[in-house]
Design brief:
alpha/beta, two-stranded antiparallel ribbon
């Protein structure tokens, strides 16, 4: 993978830029209890996907109004649960590196703008461009969010590096035509242990 060819970096939020895994799982646990769902089944498909996609997969019998209500309830649980939300390992290092290298970047998340702003704020991070589920008609694994971010940054999607920690996001990045770096062992073009490693790789590539 040629990191010298990267003209922009597009970052997922939850589990990638922001360590919110515990909060996400607590929210789904409460939702699963309220909706009488098996938590293991819920968590097996929930990470990295918008809540409405997860709920449709779990409850194909629900109509659109019921899906919207269930999704809204799941988000309501998450808004105030920020107690242990922090930046992921190497996040600050990567963002400093992107600034030093003059590489534009964006956050592309399955969260809505209220939740994204809350979690980024709790982690002490800000994004120059934030694409949320409210900006697109279809969430991950659809590539629309990443394509929109690339367009707003005026960068060819094929020259973007997507950074993800879950299969739906990897699929979205690849469908957009971008290269994908993966955390947590997900199958991607480049596997990284944390964002600090990616920062070091980008610096090394620019020095060649």
């Amino acid at each position: 993978m040629d990191l010298q060819a990267v003209d922009a970096v597009l970052l997922d939020m939850d589990g990638t830029l922001v360590d919110s895994d515990a909060a996400v799982e607590r929210a789904w646990a409460q939702w699963a209890q309220e909706y009488d769902m098996d938590l293991d089944k819920v968590l097996a498909i929930a990470h990295g996907s918008p809540s409405d996609i997860t709920i449709r997969a779990l409850h194909p019998d629900l109509d659109e109004d019921a899906v919207a209500a269930a999704s809204a309830r799941q988000l309501d649980v998450q808004y105030e649960d920020l107690s242990d939300v922090v930046a992921t390992s190497g996040a600050s290092e990567l963002l400093i590196t992107l600034d030093r290298l003059a590489l534009p970047w964006a956050v592309v998340t399955s969260a809505d703008v209220r939740l994204a702003a809350a979690r980024l704020g709790a982690a002490g991070l800000g994004a120059p461009l934030l694409i949320t589920i409210e900006d697109v008609a279809a969430g991950k694994p659809d590539p629309e969010g990443y394509l929109l971010a690339a367009r707003r940054l005026a960068v060819d999607p094929h020259r973007c590096l997507v950074v993800e920690d879950a299969a739906p996001g990897v699929a979205a990045g690849r469908a957009a035509g971008a290269s994908v770096a993966g955390l947590k062992g997900v199958d991607a073009d480049l596997r990284i242990s944390d964002l600090g490693e990616l920062a070091a790789l980008l610096i090394a590539a620019r020095r060649l």
